[in-house]
UniProtKB/TrEMBL annotation:
<feature type="signal peptide">
    <location>
        <begin position="1"/>
        <end position="29"/>
    </location>
</feature>
<dbReference type="GO" id="GO:0008113">
    <property type="term" value="F:peptide-methionine (S)-S-oxide reductase activity"/>
</dbReference>
<comment type="function">
    <text>Catalyzes the reduction of methionine sulfoxide (MetSO) to methionine in proteins. Plays a protective role against oxidative stress by restoring activity to proteins that have been inactivated by methionine oxidation. MSRA family specifically reduces the MetSO S-enantiomer.</text>
</comment>
<keyword id="KW-0560">Oxidoreductase</keyword>
<comment type="similarity">
    <text>Belongs to the MsrA Met sulfoxide reductase family.</text>
</comment>
<keyword id="KW-0732">Signal</keyword>
<dbReference type="InterPro" id="IPR036509">
    <property type="entry name" value="Met_Sox_Rdtase_MsrA_sf"/>
</dbReference>
<dbReference type="InterPro" id="IPR002569">
    <property type="entry name" value="Met_Sox_Rdtase_MsrA_dom"/>
</dbReference>
<dbReference type="Pfam" id="PF01625">
    <property type="entry name" value="PMSR"/>
</dbReference>
<protein>
    <recommendedName>
        <fullName>Peptide methionine sulfoxide reductase A5</fullName>
        <ecNumber>1.8.4.11</ecNumber>
    </recommendedName>
</protein>
<feature type="domain" description="Peptide methionine sulphoxide reductase MsrA">
    <location>
        <begin position="51"/>
        <end position="191"/>
    </location>
</feature>
Length: 251
């Protein structure tokens, strides 16, 4: 019993440590059932958050790209841009692998997310990204309203001006249904590192999917955080390791 209590206390201490030093001052959690189409009009119970959805190749990496940005509260991989009902990883139909980003517009903006979108993939590649070939890996900016459509179009024009020799293939389309992907695809880069999961207290799957901390650590695990944030997390983890947390040692 004493060992169990010690384990629980250590996990709570670790979670508090991360919440205090790595996360924004506020964090909110929602739970989303699997395999249910979701509209962009009600992405979160916290009304001040906004939602953006992008397709830029394999969604494992795409989620990690956005997860570490300041102002991003949650990320979710899924399927969008097609007509098939209830798509699945092995049966996507005409959907594209996508990432949904829930963010605080007081901290970051749709314009900033667009900058990250363009810098994180090859928008001129046709029918895939890198070694990933297929229609599901196409480049798309999904928009929620007229202003986002305008910003997307302007950003695409600027991207095209960088190189007139090849056409930007990115599509801009209104966001319809977004289908969250299966659990095994959420926070994929983070799950490849059991040590990081242990540092977070081995959260249950549903909490991990919706966790702000998990979104940030997913980007960190993929080495895709901005350098400043990457170094901050490095320092915190090294401090935990020096103190012997969260490893329990036999006495």
């Amino acid at each position: 019993m004493a060992l169990l209590q010690t384990t629980t206390c250590l996990r709570i201490s670790i979670l508090l440590f991360f919440l205090i030093f790595l996360l924004p001052k506020e964090a909110y959690c929602i739970r989303i059932p699997n395999r249910i189409a979701e509209s962009s009009t009600n992405p979160s119970t916290h009304q001040s958050l906004k939602t953006a959805v992008f397709s830029l190749g394999c969604f494992w990496r795409s989620e990690a790209v956005f997860g570490c940005l300041d102002g991003v509260f949650r990320t979710t991989v899924g399927y969008a841009g097609g007509s098939k009902l209830n798509p699945e990883y092995r049966s996507l139909g005409d959907h594209a692998e996508s990432v949904r980003v829930e963010y605080d517009p007081k901290v970051t903006s749709f314009r900033k997310l667009l900058e990250v979108f363009w810098s994180s993939h090859d928008s001129r590649q046709v029918f895939g990204q890198g070694p990933d070939v297929g229609n599901q890996y196409r480049s798309i900016i999904f928009t929620n309203d007229t202003e986002e459509s305008r910003l997307a179009a302007v950003s695409k024009e600027k991207e095209q001006l960088k190189s007139r020799g090849s056409a930007v293939t990115t599509q801009i389309q209104e966001l319809g249904a977004f289908y969250p992907a299966e659990a095994e695809h959420q926070k994929f880069e983070l799950k490849r590192n059991p040590f990081f999961l242990q540092l977070m207290g081995n959260l249950p799957e549903e909490e991990l999917e919706m966790s702000t901390l998990a979104a940030k650590m997913n980007g960190y695990a993929a080495d895709l955080c901005p350098p400043k944030i990457q170094k901050q997390i490095d320092a915190k983890i090294n401090d935990i390791i020096k103190k012997g947390w969260p490893i329990l040692r036999e006495k």
